[in-house]
Amino acid sequence: MSGVWFFRVGLMLWLIVNQGPAGFDPKTFQGSFLSFLSFADYLVPLAVLEAYLYARDRSGSAGKYAMAVGLLLLTIAMGVGIFGATMGMWLPRMKG
User: Fold this and answer.
1) 38 Cα distance to chain centroid
2) Considering the entire predicted model, what is its pTM?
3) Whole domain around residue 14: which residue ranges?
4) Side-chain half-sphere of 51: how many Cα atoms within 13 Å?
5) pLDDT tens digits, 25-51
């Protein structure tokens, strides 16, 4: 997984959810949320993979259903972050 991509999408998701910067100073680009996100861009994908593998191998139908719902929610959140990154970071640079 690309840590830079996950960081940008996660940051844009955070900005959309909070309707602006929260947990960091946008001028200095420092703060507690950015420290969290710098670790989360590696740990969250690994935690999701571990949960998936556990649900696949060791849980019953309820655990597999819960994992499927969790993956659906994470997919929706990632989609919102991708939309925010596209509209706020990438699309404006493509218009010439």
Assistant:
1) 11
2) 0.82
3) 3-94
4) 16
5) 999 999 999 999 999 988 988 999 999
Task: Report whether 89 contacts 82 (CB < 8 A).
Answer: no
**Count of domains forming the chain:** 1
- Sorted by sequence, the CB contacts under 8 Å of residue 51 that are 6+ apart come out as 67, 70
Distance set, CA 8 to CA 53, 57, 67, 83 (Å): 26, 32, 25, 11
Strand, coil or helix: what is 25? strand
Alpha helices in 1-96 (DSSP H): 3-18, 32-58, 61-85, 91-94
Number of Cβ within 10 Å of residue 6's Cβ equals 18
